[in-house]
Amino acid sequence: ICRCDARTTFYAVATDPTNDQIIYVGNDRSRISVSDDGGQSVRTTIVPVGQAQEVFITDLDIFPGNLAAYAATGTDLAAYASNGMLMRIGDNEWVAMRPQKFIAGRDYVQSVALDPANPNAVFLAGSNGLVRVDSEGPAWLASP
Q1: What SS3 state is found at 35?
Q2: What pLDDT digit, counting tens, does each position of 13-36 carry?
Q3: How far apart are CA 52 and CA 68, in angstroms?
Q4: Contact, 98 vs 123, CB < 8 A?
Q5: Closest CA to 28 of 49, 14, 42
Q6: 14 — phi, psi (to 5°)?
Q7: Alpha-carbon distance 84 to 60, whole Å?
């Protein structure tokens, strides 16, 4: 599904819960690959890295029907620190979103999980603890 060099490590894979032909794969080279046909063809995006050299795509989650897709980026290795969470905003276009008090190059997001009732709400776990994010609003809200 990804034509990458031999040094690439894959950290994340996710399928659409309602269509197993839609597959997302994330690696340690700032890339998210997407297939709509079970891996027969692939589109790969190099995601925005900001000040980091490269980011690890550590987790992916897709809302049923491929309506929304999110990726966690990060590791505790300083040279590969995170850009926070990535949100898909187009067919194969991603944008970075960061929690309040998130410092790119130091903090990281390890896991992402969707709220099953709301494709615009996600939960993040990482170096800043657990955070609930509502992408329709401007604020990142700390979990209770």
Answers
A1: strand
A2: 999 999 999 999 998 888 898 999
A3: 25
A4: no
A5: 49
A6: -150, 145
A7: 13
